[in-house]
Amino acid sequence: MSDTHHDHPPDAPPTHYQRMEIALREILMAKSVFTPDDVRREVEAMEGRSAGTGARLVARAWVDPAFKARLLDDARLGAAEMGIPPGPYRVLVMENTATLHNMIVCTLCSCYPRVLLGLPPAWYKGTAYRSRAVREPRAVLAEFGFALADDVALRVHDSTADMRYMVLPMRPAGTEGWSEEELARLVTRDSLIGVAPALDPQALGRASDAAG
User: Fold this and answer.
1) Residue 2: active-site member
2) Which of 12, 82, 158, 211 could pair with 177 as two cysteines, CB 3.0-4.6 Å apart?
3) Strand 90-95 relative to strand 163-168: parallel, antiparallel, unpaired?
């Protein structure tokens, strides 16, 4: 199922859009535009994507202010600059700061930047998160174990079929001198969605004063 489809129980009859997709795919294969193997490889590539891709972008943005400015201005071009296929839809990267925290959701279905974050977690697609993230986002964050300070503003960004969001979490303190590879290990899927901060350096078993 593509990112633009709404949640659909696996045992339910195909939706109108699913039937259209199947018919179009069969026509294109009949015309040798692509083969079943092409479809299989694309599905495998999609399933192989992970949040590590988005983590690479974040790590580069943390160490390269010029790249961060380009990423925030046009995430697709920023991704392409690092050799990451940008995907067919627009992606906006929202930067967390000491006074502003961002969080993403798709209230309509489960639109998600799979190119950068991999497959969405089950809870992201669930009705509870999709409805409560906009009504009581601080309570939702608290349930993830993330107590956001009262003086930090919170913005919830609702994804659409043609536009996705990714959060640029704040860089943890004590990571001066860390390599991009080390920094990327601090970036989790949940921090890219905005329901958690980046990992504390201690989570990697490395003392903050030992960086360099």
Assistant:
1) no
2) 211
3) parallel
Mean pLDDT of 130-157: 96
Query: Are 135 and 158 in contact, with CB atoms under 8 Å apart?
Result: no
Question: What is d(CA 42, CA 156) in angstroms, rounded to the nearest whole number?
Answer: 31
Q: What is the mean pLDDT of residues 60-86?
A: 92
Catalytic residue among 2, 50, 109, 179: 109
Name the DSSP letter for residue 194. T
Per the annotation, the verdict on 131 as an active-site residue is no
Residue 69 near residue 134, CB atoms below 8 Å: no
Quick one: pLDDT at residue 30? 83
Query: Residue 100 above 70 pLDDT?
Result: yes
Question: Which residues pair with residue 157 across a beta bridge?
Answer: 104
Choosing from 111, 131, 159, 179, the catalytic residue is 111
For residue 116 the two structure tokens come to: 């950068």
> What's the DSSP call for residue 107?
S
Give 154-178 pLDDT, tens digit per residue.
Answer: 999 999 988 999 999 999 999 999 9
Residue 110 catalytic?
yes
Domain span(s) for CATH 3.90.330.10 in the chain:
50-210
Give the global pTM: 0.74
Say which of 2, 32, 50, 110 is annotated catalytic.
Answer: 110
| Structural class in CATH, domain 50-210 | alpha beta
Q: What is the maximal distance between C-alpha atoms in the chain?
A: 62
